[in-house]
Amino acid sequence: MFAYQDDDMDSDPFINITGGRAPGGAFRSQSFNFQGSPQRGKDKQDPAIEHDLYVSLEDIAKGCTKKMKISRKVLQADGSTRSEDKVLTINVKPGWKAGTKITFPREGDQGPNKIPADIVFIIRDKSHPLFKREGSDIKYVAKITLKQALCGCSIEVPTLTGQKIPIHFTNEVVKPTTVRRLQGYGLPLPKEPSRRGDLIVNVDIKFPERLSQSAKDILYDTLPN
Question: Measured between alpha carbons, how far is 135 from 6 in angstroms, rounded to an integer?
Fold first, then answer.
């Protein structure tokens, strides 16, 4: 039996990894040995138990600590097992990439003639309302109107630290392909945390649903062919 609890989670405190919900409400998982029955005198290790650990971009930017509560079976001297709760601490380093694996060797269920499974947590990016990660860079889409694109505008770009960076489009016509790169406002590089990726700003121009005939006439007379 194995379950885990993220101290940041506010939903069901026990999350199933490989099995279903057990009687009593908590989720339990089962450890399977795909090697067949253990041979006498030769213990077999259960397959690793993996679970995704979702981390926000803000936590990836500065690093954080996650405490995961597991519940497992522990082998007694008389050959019986009892349930035990244990807290595993994961120190997420700044800039860790999605897919990074953290392994806790032999923390799975104990039992006769077997080696407990390794517990493996896999770092995943938690969905963000503003940014999307691309390696150590992050992307932000700035929405502007067609009027702003043609006549010029200034926008404020948010960052992971809460700071806002102004970008001015006052002397140019903004095109759908316009991109701005703010150096050093991305995520730390995993192997060089003192360096950071960039914040890449793409522009999304909102076109009007329809134009009046008078507006069309003005644009026809004003815009170059």
Answer: 25
Using DSSP, state whether 63 is helix, strand or coil: coil
Chain position carrying tokens 């060797």: 105
Q: Residue 50 pLDDT > 90, yes or no?
A: yes
Please tell me what DSSP assigns to residue 3.
E
pLDDT digits (tens, 9 = 90+) for 122-161: 999 999 999 999 999 999 999 999 999 999 999 999 999 9
Count of C-beta atoms within a 10 Å radius of residue 45: 16
The pLDDT of 61-86, averaged and rounded, is: 91
Q: What is the per-residue pLDDT for 8?
A: 52
Which secondary-structure segment (H or E) carries 44?
strand 44-45
Beta-strand (E) ranges in 47-191?
49-55, 64-75, 81-92, 101-104, 114-115, 119-125, 131-134, 137-145, 153-158, 164-169, 179-182, 188-189
Report whether 180 contacts 136 (CB < 8 A). Answer: no
Number of residues written out for the chain: 225
Q: Hey, what CATH topology would domain 3-125 get?
A: HSP40/DNAj peptide-binding domain (2.60.260)
pTM: 0.74
Quote the distance between the C-alpha of residue 151 and its chain's center: 38
Give the class (CATH, top level) of 131-222: mainly beta
Spell out the domain ranges in the chain.
3-125, 131-222
